[in-house]
Amino acid sequence: MSKFYWSVDFDNCNVGDNFSYEIEGWVLTESGKKVTVSVQADTDETFEYRVKRKNRVDLRNVLKTLEIPSDAGFTVSIDKIYKLRDLGCTYLELIADDGEEKQTIFHKELQKILEEGGTTTLEGNLDIQEKKDDRMILWGWAYDKYDNAKIEVLDSNGQPVPFKMKREVRNDVNRLFHLDKERKCGYILSIRRQDVRARKIIIRISNKMTSKEFPIDMKKFDRDNTTIGKYLKVLGPSRFKENRKRIKETGLQDFRYYAIKEMNRHVSDYDIWLADHKLSEKELKKQREHRFEYEPKISIVIPLYNTPLDFLKALIDSIQSQTYANWQLCLADGSNNGQVGPFIQRMYGKEKRISYVLLEKNEGISENTNGAIRIADGDFIMFSDHDDTVAPNALYEIVKALNEDRETDVVYTDEDKVTMDGKTYYDPHFKPDFNLDLLRSNNYICHIFVVKKDIVNQVGLLRKEYDGAQDFDFILRCCEKAHKIKHIPKVLYHWRNHPASTAGDPTSKMYAYEAGRAAVAAHFERIGMKAEVTMTDQFGRYRTRLLVEGEPLISILIPNKDHKEDLEKCIRSIYEKSTYRNFEILVIENNSETEEIFSFYEQLKKEHSNLRILNWKKPFNYSAINNFGAEHARGEYLVLLNNDIEVKTEDWMEEMLGYCQREDVGIVGAKLLFPDERIQHAGIIVGLGPSGTAGHIFYTFPNDVFTYAGKTSSTQDLSAVTAACMMTKKSLYQKIGGMDEAFAVAFNDVDYCLRVREQNKLVVYQAFVEMYHYESVTRGYEDKPENAKRFEQETKRFKKRWAKILKAGDPYYNPNLTKTRNDCVIRS
């Protein structure tokens, strides 16, 4: 009788293309006979598997009294393991056979094998269960690493329940599992309530290996989705303590928003915002009765071309509904279907404020719009597309703004999109106040755009060569001539989202993006600025490289205390990667304690003739240290640089210098990234963050994610940027006294930026200069008692000095966006 020795070391599903199941181990007999290994299952059907034998020399140290054959080890592989289920198999066994006896050395249920393999790749959840009208609306997500997870709806008897499904991107899931940012793991299921007759339904997600189920008790679902059920779920006794704490922390207004959202989770944040900001009939009536001191005529110019009559009616009706009455609607019709003109005459023939002209032929959007401008006799020109709509208070708000400052030449507003049926408003574009460099990056103004007729007379009409971006070219020309540009942070225009429009499908009009690039290039040519304008991979967004004039000396100031490795990485990257060569580096030594750093200083001085070591022997004060460095700088431009910065963009100095050389610019900042490519700095918003002082926008967001309105990827003007990598004119730095030394650690850079803004100079965030930042490795975070106290004092000082801007709000950040988070969600 043979005595078998064996071990199954592990079994594992390699859930890849082949869904291979592997069992690995060893087997031998006391007598040393040759042993074969085979797979058996409780099915009469045949299936393929592979057995690979191998040497296990490691066994000699364990089984010293036995002879270890050269093929004692084995690996059994079965591809597409899930197919055994279709063959009726319920278990697998490994059988060892020495020719005389057989021994079962492994047994496992197939279901367990599949579950163990599948659960390593199948993830999902049912997040929200709501009832909307007569339908169940279910939100969740399902993710399978190697396959598309299957989603089913079953009743308690296992019978399918009919449903509709929409897949959507879930950024939170994609980030959690490190998936492609475009992967649609999210699902929204819509089920007619009358189609569910069972007491329970099951949402099942599955892959080829296993499944997960999420049961829904229909009695509880119906109860929870009554008005009283929703109320108790959010405001009932069980939530009393939690709600009281929330009110205390966030205030009653924020709690109201939270409660509405929780009770109506199928309603978007923007739906709630719209409801909160919708004007009542009483308010609209009050506007109609109001008389302004200055009541200019607004001529609304619209080109028509075979406009669908229902869309045209919606547009004209929205203009007739305006609460401000002194307007003129100028319609230039290039249609060839013979329907538009008769429709306007039939429906609006008695409206004297409508001016209609039938063009001899359709000459394209620019010339057709020019036809409308030619019949305009108003004081201001307003532009609109032929199938969009405007809010009833749009003209009232525009004229109100003109009365607040009679020198205003241009007015623009916020906007959103509306579905083709005109029922759902979404994707609001909450814009900053006038932002010249953002406008050069993208036509963020778009709608509504209103310009004084005198400006139009100066710049001329729309230009056909820019068709597709004719409005962008026109806006740029008008803004070049305007003295004052006013932004109204209210959604007053609704852009209808056609499947083939740039609002809905950016790839449908590539010619328009090239026309936009040409418009920006022409703008720079008109103002005499040498620039290279290129398209980016984000359609409709442009990169402008301003060409450096001459080769001025740049002084790079780097404060340092110890941290030899960080400083070495920083300086090496400057010398090895930078393409601009006319610079000097001033390392400002501040009370280092290690011998290696002083040895490194000596090494640096020997290696680089344009590097100096300055000694600041007083206590650490970031502002004072940089001021000290600036006194010794020989350059025309200063770069304030942390010692934990590493160069990524090779032409970073040229990119920043090109902007900093402009007369209207005082500071240029860069995009800073953590080593894992997450964003550390993409601009600073005043008033953002828990302290209500200033915060980094989109902090820790992935660099390759398109953020709200392209904020992180578009060069633009801001109120502040970080001094971890900041270029500024030395003359300006000296003029305003450098950094305020009262801000030893915190807010010194923001304070400096705001004082530069007081000099009517711009602060530019250069989105195409990227540097790595190993944030605060030198001095650490504000976690010590003395640091916390100092931070509190500097916070109070900042709030007192900049109380005006904190109250009014950062002009480069829309007041409809939250300041409690850094991701530009709607303010509750």
Q: What would a concise description of this structure say?
A:
With 828 residues, the protein is α+β, with helices and mostly antiparallel strands. Helices cover 30% and strands 29% of the residues. Helix 15 crosses helix 16 and helix 16 packs parallel to helix 17 (510-526).
What labels would you give this structure?
828 residues, alpha+beta, Immunoglobulin-like, 5 domains, 10-stranded mixed beta sheet, 9-stranded mixed beta sheet, 25 helices, 29% strand, globular
Total number of β-strand segments? Answer: 37
Q: Describe the biggest sheet?
A: 10 strands, mixed
Identify the CATH architecture of the largest domain.
Alpha-Beta Complex
Average pLDDT, all residues: 90
Gap between N and C termini, in Å? 80 Å
Q: Percent range for helical residues? A: 25-40%
Percent of residues in beta strands: 25-35%
CATH first level of the largest domain: which class?
Alpha Beta
The tally of helices reads 25
Spans of 5+ residues with little confidence (pLDDT < 50)? 777-782
CATH fold node name of the largest domain: Spore Coat Polysaccharide Biosynthesis Protein SpsA, Chain A
CATH superfamily of the largest domain: Spore Coat Polysaccharide Biosynthesis Protein SpsA, Chain A
Domain Glycosyltransferase 2-like: 299-449, 555-733
Protein name: Glycosyltransferase family 2 protein
GO molecular function: glycosyltransferase activity
Pfam family, one: Glycos_transf_2
